[in-house]
């Protein structure tokens, strides 16, 4: 007689790979044979997980169509079963999966679109962060400025792509009614995804992206500023810091 843990593990393995499982032999038949009961449960699990992916990746689904998306989702679920009891965690590696998914090979931008949608999803569900005030910053002694480490808001996410992701995302929103054309050769985007009153996607310049990326990596202000100026020689650090503090992008400091 298998232990409870063995039954649980066998059940989970059977759900995501039923053709290689004989778990149905542990199920008492009822109105239907045991295999049918297990098949119904497996179907419901896959429908639930597919629905979770559709909720997070609506632009990806619109780009490829419902049939293709369901095929991709089914393949993904078989190879990447959930590891958390929180359904909001499911689909974290879908962008990486799409990058290696042979049927999507010609859609070179699709993986980056998925990265953007996962960033939006993360930002929406992230914790709140107390804004950093200019008064708090003004109280710091000038000789300590170089050693300051800023913190990004918990709902801030940074993303860079060689493709015009913001344009792709915008034209695939349900309410969008303007020109639908996208020129993939127009250049890439550097983006900040940030939840304020709602989730916003902001196009960043080279300097802003370098600065915020360095801050996210825990780099001190002096080094972060140097990286920003290397990326954009005319970068106005003072104005940028003031802008990001007022906007709530920066929420804390340490030394």
Provide tags for this entry.
single chain, two-stranded antiparallel ribbon, 3-stranded antiparallel beta sheet, globular, 255 residues, mainly alpha, 11 helices
Description:
Helix 9 packs antiparallel against helix 10 (221-231). The strands form 2 sheets. A 3-stranded antiparallel beta sheet has the order 2-3-4, with helices on both faces. It is mainly α and 255 residues long. 49% of the residues lie in helices and 10% in strands.
List the helices and strands and how they pair.
Elements: H1 4-16, H2 34-56, H3 58-64, H4 66-79, H5 94-100, H6 110-125, H7 134-138, E1 149-152, E2 157-161, H8 165-171, E3 189-195, E4 199-203, H9 206-216, H10 221-231, H11 237-246, E5 250-254
Antiparallel strand pairs: 1-5, 2-3, 3-4
- Kindly report the oligomeric state of this protein: single chain
Kindly state the percentage of residues in helix.
40-55%
Contiguous low-pLDDT stretches (5 residues minimum) are none
Q: Per the principal axes of the C-alpha atoms, what is the gross shape?
A: globular
Strand order of the largest sheet: 2-3-4
How many beta-strand elements? 5
The value of Rg in angstroms is: 23 Å
Class based on secondary structure composition and strand pairing: mainly alpha
**SSE topology string:** HHHHHHHEEHEEHHHE
Task: Please outline what is shown here.
The chain is mainly alpha-helical. The protein is built from 11 helices and 5 strands; from the N terminus they run αααααααββαββαααβ.
